[in-house]
Amino acid sequence: MKLLKKGAEADLYQTKWQNSKAILKIRKIKNYRNSLLDLKIRKQRTIKECQMISFVKSFGIPTPLIYFVNLKTTSIMMQEIPGTPVHDLPESKIVELSKDIGKLVGTLHKNGVMHGDLTTSNFILFKKTVFVIDFGLSQNTIKSEDHAVDLRLIKEILNSAHAKIMLSSWENFLHGYKSIVGSAYYAKITKLVSDIESRGRYAEVV
Questions:
Q1: pLDDT tens string 82-122
Q2: What is the secondary structure of the chain as a DSSP string?
Q3: Which of 38, 100, 117, 195 is catalytic?
Q4: Which CATH topology does 84-198 take?
Q5: 146 is catalytic
Q6: Superfamily of domain 2-79, CATH level 4
């Protein structure tokens, strides 16, 4: 078993499940919390993440398969998507795929799901399909303010990690997003993103 990533909430390991490559996600014990409360919270979040992955798959979002859930260790064994994170692709490919990512995010929002951690590392290209991973912070919500926070985050990521192609990528993302949610909702969400930026807690990106 190989450690892939140490996160604030969970660690990810590369392993195998019945001869298939797999990812083991283990939620961390928080020693500052009461132990019983901590276990309850970790169990709830583990269950919620699995439910969310199954839910979004039901309306066509490509996600990893869940192989096994262990609530005692608050861990999830899931399929490893053997592709490349969009973050690591050539700039021209990121620009091209931004429209597809916009469509995926639009589909999530249209079905009442906020991803909560929209970074280009959480989209993986495998055999011409973009998969969405890491639903650990996702929520069932139809609040447009929550959806605007999702868009604001990916806009920030494009600006910080992909500055040279930020404008063209963001434009393509919005084009894909609008094609799913429609003009009225698109106008509402993009206005909210602008409102968030103007509050002063966030730096204006463009």
A1: 999 999 999 999 999 999 999 999 999 999 999 999 999 99
A2: -EEEEE-SSEEEEEEEETTEEEEEEEEPP-TTS-HHHHHHHHHHHHHHHHHHHHHHHHTT---PPEEEEETTTTEEEEE---SEEGGGS-HHHHHHHHHHHHHHHHHHHHTTEE-S---GGGEEEETTEEEE---TT-EE---HHHHHHHHHHHHHHHHHHSGGGHHHHHHHHHHHHHHHH-HHHHHHHHHHHHHHHHTSSS----
A3: 117
A4: Transferase(Phosphotransferase); domain 1 (1.10.510)
A5: no
A6: Phosphorylase Kinase; domain 1 (3.30.200.20)
